């Protein structure tokens, strides 16, 4: 049969060739017995036992995921424990049992109501529906003594197809066995997508119901860069996919075709990620997320623990640059021991630098002490520190004053330290508009395109209903990036990018043409981006960027990016 293509959303720019294995974990419950035949006391005890066992499993999986994937990704299991013990849910199940339902039917009924409720909310809250399904399925399995499908021991070369993959499902996947996965539902920010990037798995999500037409045992190509699943591919397609999978890792600095150096760094969420970043040829760290130090604990890390973590990162990249982002909590990153407000729209609330200069000021000072000490101990490695979600000059000046004050305290105590490079993230429209005023007071900007696109377009990045609107290829987002780079010109201020856009090799030529000095991304895409840098001529890239910036719509941007006459295509 001739090959055919199903389109979706590629979440990693990777390709894989393999054989379909369908994953269908859902099983229908038999009809419940009559209410008078149900012993509520027995059923309540069964439910309590299942909850206890489920919590133990979740804690084990959290620890395993933190080690294999990363602390930030593992934090989803903390949310699962909270849902498992949520009074509204447990009371709903209890009431259903007391009304005459067996425990498993009571779980099914109660969770179905909450799943529907979250799905109707859309966005980040809509993604919680998958978390609830994950907990529901776990409880149903434990209540029925069912066997869990072991996704960690699939045959080598398997491509997993599923309606959806929950966090528990995706965390099991073994990249040495699985050639990729494809789902009917899901978006770029779903848990499955995030895990795919961390595990360096080819993946396409949101293919739709057409995926159901692909049978078990069918040979397929998962083309994450092309946003497609190729069913029964021909030899040319398979050969091209295999060639894309075999990317050369460059361990040294890279230059454009005409000799302009571009830093290609890694986004790091845990100390365990350092090894992956080194293995994929990172030129340093462009985003060191410090949140992992503060999660999954009853109290914040002290100064010495933070200092040791920062020093370990510096020692992993001798003679390179390590950019550390100060604590960025709030929004979608709650920390249990902090008094975080219950806000109607946390993404527009008290998060990032707003908390560091406000209720978390003591934590901020401790973190700065550890960072300045680490900078003072660095031997050949440059430490840079950047502030998240800055929107005003007052925030910048207040933060800088805190750095100076902490430095003075360390000096008076006789503690070795050094002032690091000082920068801010450009992720709010305010920061982009005021970049010319910020530039004289900082050493660098780092553009966080995930939040910048969300705020510029007023489109929540986790909401699939507005995902097209919140795309970083929107003209308004590109113009905000261009304005930021232009504002830095004439000042001693370099410009980096650490959002998802930086890791898309199809956009490397554009970003070089816009004048970005450093690109930081998930380690999985570093080899592809380095390859793209070496094939880019800066003069041609600048002309190409001007051509793309002149587009009036996102569709026109996409067409111009794919123009076969572009310098990148010619090379």
Entry keywords:
8-stranded parallel barrel; 17 strands; disordered C terminus; 15% strand; 571 residues; 8-stranded mixed beta sheet; 23 helices; single chain; alpha/beta
What can you tell me about this protein's structure?
With 571 residues, the chain is an alpha/beta fold. It contains 23 helices and 17 strands. The strands form 2 sheets. It has an 8-stranded mixed β-sheet. The chain has an 8-stranded parallel barrel with strand order 10-11-12-13-14-15-16-17, surrounded by 6 helices. Strand 7 (219-223) and strand 8 form a beta hairpin. Mean pLDDT is 89; it is low at 566-571.
Question: Could you provide a short overview of the structure?
Answer:
The protein is α/β, with parallel strands linked by helices and 571 residues long. The chain is built from 23 helices and 17 strands.
Describe the secondary structure blueprint for this structure.
Elements: E1 4-7, E2 9-10, E3 15-23, H1 40-68, H2 71-74, H3 76-84, H4 87-98, H5 103-121, H6 123-143, E4 158-162, H7 167-172, E5 178-183, H8 191-199, E6 203-205, E7 219-223, E8 228-231, H9 235-245, E9 254-255, E10 261-268, H10 273-279, E11 284-289, H11 303-316, E12 321-325, H12 353-356, H13 361-377, E13 382-387, H14 393-413, E14 421-426, H15 429-433, H16 435-438, E15 444-447, H17 449-456, H18 475-488, E16 494-497, H19 508-514, E17 518-521, H20 526-534, H21 538-549, H22 554-561, H23 567-570
Parallel strand pairs: 3-4, 4-5, 5-6, 10-11, 10-17, 11-12, 12-13, 13-14, 14-15, 15-16, 16-17
Antiparallel strand pairs: 1-8, 2-6, 3-7, 7-8, 9-10
């Amino acid at each position: 049969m001739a090959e055919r293509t199903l389109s979706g959303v590629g979440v990693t720019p990777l390709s894989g060739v393999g054989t379909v294995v369908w994953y269908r974990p859902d099983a229908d419950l038999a009809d419940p017995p009559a209410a008078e035949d149900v012993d509520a006391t027995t059923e309540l005890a069964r439910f309590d036992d299942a909850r206890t066992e489920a919590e133990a499993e979740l804690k084990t999986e959290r620890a395993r995921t933190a080690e294999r994937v990363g602390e930030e990704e593992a934090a989803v299991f903390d949310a699962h424990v909270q849902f498992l013990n949520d009074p509204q849910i447990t009371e709903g199940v209890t009431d259903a049992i007391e009304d005459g339902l067996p425990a498993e039917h009571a779980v099914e009924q109660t969770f179905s109501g909450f799943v529907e409720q979250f799905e109707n909310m859309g966005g980040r809250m809509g993604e919680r529906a998958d978390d609830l399904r994950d907990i529901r399925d776990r409880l149903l399995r434990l209540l029925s003594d069912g066997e869990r499908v072991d996704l960690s021991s699939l045959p080598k070369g398997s491509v997993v197809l599923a309606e959806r993959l929950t966090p528990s499902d995706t965390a099991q996947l073994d990249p040495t066995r699985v050639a990729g996965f494809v789902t009917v539902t899901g978006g770029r920010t779903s848990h499955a997508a995030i895990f795919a990037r961390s595990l360096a798995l080819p993946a396409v999500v949101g293919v739709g119901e057409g995926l159901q037409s692909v049978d078990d045992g069918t040979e397929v190509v998962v083309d994450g860069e092309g946003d497609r699943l190729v069913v029964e591919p021909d030899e040319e397609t398979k050969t091209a996919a295999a060639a894309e999978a075999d990317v050369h890792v460059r361990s040294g600095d890279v230059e454009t075709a005409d000799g302009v150096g571009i830093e290609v760094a890694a986004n790091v969420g845990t100390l365990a990620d350092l090894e992956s970043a080194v293995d994929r040829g990172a030129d340093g760290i462009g985003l060191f997320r410090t949140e992992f130090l503060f999660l999954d604990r009853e109290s914040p890390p002290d100064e010495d623990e933070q200092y040791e973590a920062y020093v370990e990162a510096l020692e992993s990249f001798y003679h390179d640059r390590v950019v550390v982002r100060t604590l960025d909590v709030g929004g979608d990153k709650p920390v249990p021991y902090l008094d975080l407000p219950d806000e109607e729209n946390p993404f527009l609330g008290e998060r990032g630098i707003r908390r560091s200069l406000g209720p978390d000021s003591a934590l901020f000072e401790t973190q700065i002490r550890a960072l300045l000490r680490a900078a003072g101990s660095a031997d050949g490695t440059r430490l840079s520190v950047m502030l998240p979600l800055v929107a005003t000059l007052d925030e910048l000046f207040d933060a800088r004053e805190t750095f100076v004050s902490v430095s003075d305290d360390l000096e008076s105590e006789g503690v070795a330290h050094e002032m690091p490079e000082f920068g801010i993230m450009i992720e709010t429209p305010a920061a982009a508009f005021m970049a010319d005023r910020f530039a004289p007071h900082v050493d660098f900007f780092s553009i966080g395109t995930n939040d910048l696109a969300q705020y510029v377009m007023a489109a929540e990045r986790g909401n699939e209903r507005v995902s097209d609107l919140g795309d970083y290829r929107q003209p308004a987002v590109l113009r905000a990036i261009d304005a930021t780079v232009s504002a830095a010109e004439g000042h001693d201020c370099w410009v980096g990018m650490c959002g998802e856009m930086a890791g898309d090799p199809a956009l490397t030529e554009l970003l070089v043409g816009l004048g970005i000095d450093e690109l930081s991304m998930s380690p999985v895409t570093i080899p592809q981006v380095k390859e793209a840098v070496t094939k880019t001529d800066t003069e041609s890239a600048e002309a190409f960027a001007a051509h793309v910036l002149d587009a009036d719509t996102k569709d026109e941007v996409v067409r111009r990016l794919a123009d076969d006459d572009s310098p990148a295509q010619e090379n």
